[in-house]
Amino acid sequence: MKTPPIPLSMISLDNYAEHNLDFNPEKFEEYRGQDELKKKLALYTHAAQLRNEPLDHLLFFGPPGLGKTTLCTLMARVMNVDIKICSGPMLERTGDLVALLSSLKKKDIIFIDEIHRIPTAVEEVLYTAMENFRIDIIIGQGAGAQSVNLPLQPFTLIGATTKTGLISAPLRSRFGILERLDYYSHQELQMIIEDNAHYLATPISSQSALLIAQAARGTPRIAKKLLRRVRDFAQVENNNIIDETITVRALQFLGIDQTGLSQLDNALLKIMIEKFDGGPVGLETLASLLSEDSTTLEEVHEPYLIRMGYLEKSSRGRIIPYKILPRLKKKFFGQETLF
Ligand code: ADP
Asked: If you average pLDDT over every residue of the chain, what do you get?
């Protein structure tokens, strides 16, 4: 029987592969796309290894699911060091961070996802840790308070954030390398889907892989999730073979159209046309009309709609660009002009 997955926070490189039930790139060649970034990271890791030093602290920007955690584990593997993975909200107290940092060996990597969500008091401990590999903390209160200095092994901190603007200037300035991850092209996602289908021993036609890629919103995590759902269909209805017919039916069943728009994305656009003739309309109004939380709309749905040119933000609210309006009216109502 396979061992159940363990929470990410507890995964170190040793047990990462053992508990991973799906395909994760372990070499730069297996990590598809992000070519410029890969070239730079391969060079930095190689140089650090030649010097027998830890890699410089590194900050990744980019939406979730684009492969930041995967890149970090891959770099740790290439450098033959351990990696500890955690996220900003998990580091509630200074003690949590101190425990984590003091467990690192020379050149180990600590990856903090959503680093913008670390509480300020914890963030301040990071400053000296990153700069001087030392922790300076005050223990106790009042007259009995004592300052404690704890030396650390030279380590690498890799931070990741979706919100560039929320990283404080002092923290940002302590990262030597700042890099952004881009959304993936359909061809790159198609390769990721084919790699994963191969790993899952599920035959897939290249056209089916492309259809899934087109629906995956530029994001490997979504591509993998869609592949697994399409595979469920294939398993039950098509002898575990993913062909075009099965793929189209599965995507329809999931309520995802071929451009990657979900039911909620479509409902949002439809309501904007029906009630506001394309806008402008405020986020809160949209959220209440759709009975959806405004943060989810803003962080999950809008970025893709904006990237695909379906939506624009203006000082007066959200607007469907004038040029695309007739096409959407046709899509939703069968005619280019309404009213
Ligand atoms: P993030 O940390 O940015 O949220 P992850 O590293 O967890 O994203 O990646 C999400 C999933 O997508 C993982 O299962 C990973 O294996 C896969 N993945 C991400 N990027 C790539 C890539 N470039 N090539 C192949 N698989 C990828």
From this structure: 89
